[in-house]
Amino acid sequence: MEKSKFRFAVRKFQPFENAIQKIWESFCKERGLDIEAEFVAMDLPELHDAIIGRGGLKNGDWDAAHIVTDWLDEAYSSESLEALNPYLEAQNLNLEVWSNSLLEAQVFEQKEIVGLPFHDGPECLIIRKDLFESEEEQSNFYIQFGRPLAIPKTWDEFLEVASFFQRPDQNLYGTVLAGYPDGHNTVYDFCLQLWTRGGNLLNEKGDININQQEAIDALDFYKSWVNNNDIVHPHAKDYESVQCGLAFARGEAAMMINWFGFAAMCEVIEESKVKGKIDVAQIPSLEYTDSASLNIYWLYAIGKGSDKKQLAFDFIQYATSAESDKLLTLEGGIGCRKSTWHDAEINRIIPYYHKLEQLHLYAKTLPRTATWAKIAEYIDEMMVRAMTTDETLANILVETQEKIDKCR
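The structure assignment produced for this chain is given below.
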């Protein structure tokens, strides 16, 4: 049966879904188009399977999609993505409206550009500033710990602050995290724990090698964190990043390490109970180790097999305009244009929005490899084993590294 609808695979998240529907309606109205569109929202594993695993972008099932930088090498090597260069050149589009940090991952051989920035926001520490600034909380914390209550800079300080704010009877918990194993959340947390302990994902040969002492320490800390009922939200093991962010927006945690976008979301969604009460800061580290962040971003991409490529590009061009980028932000996503980062209205609503530029300065990226999805799956399995079993962490690492080595 011939496909007539414009089909777009969407990362499932209500602000994304709301924004893209509004942008499409505005696009059609402005261009005088009468085209039916189908925006299908999917969680991460389902989305990956739909657009790459089952070849949806390659065979024309999907005209366009949201795609995360983790998946780009796999998608490119499977010839799933349309190069945008001819379209960009025809429109003479200026890519300098975005930071260089949002223009690198999607460039491949012969400088082929396969996507334009959609949603960003590096990982950071998100805190309830109203709790940290409360004179009563400051006094009680000093009595208990003998030091001023402050945004934690080290992991030891983080644990102390989390334990102080653990109040189940008030439905307030010291911290909440996304422990659900979907190939992303726990993987990112592992990387952050590794980096903030001075470890690296790559060895001197440029190969992924996690069999190191810093990785053992990272696993040990994460295991004790997620299983510690004296500091963590009771549903931490079940939440993925969106659910984690929504729990924070409901006022159920004093701190979380999550994407910047979930901090911004707290200022704009109706159900948020913490508007005007939060701030962002650098992620804690060991005392003599630098902080780190993770720069993973989402893109608009066109399917190689689409028969509506020009329409798809026209829509993506419209969706990445300054107006649409700002609309996405106001809906609860994170606009990627520099103009949005420094927009006066946006910074009135989200007072820390301008900090995005600073967060990008120390954000790291994941290794570019077509086998990353499989490697992430192995790291995910490693994290689950570490969290839920009494196996020796060193042995878990060795076995995981053996699997990773076979992906080369």
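Interim note for the steering committee: The CA atoms of residues 224 and 375 lie 24 Å apart. The longest strand covers residues 253-259.
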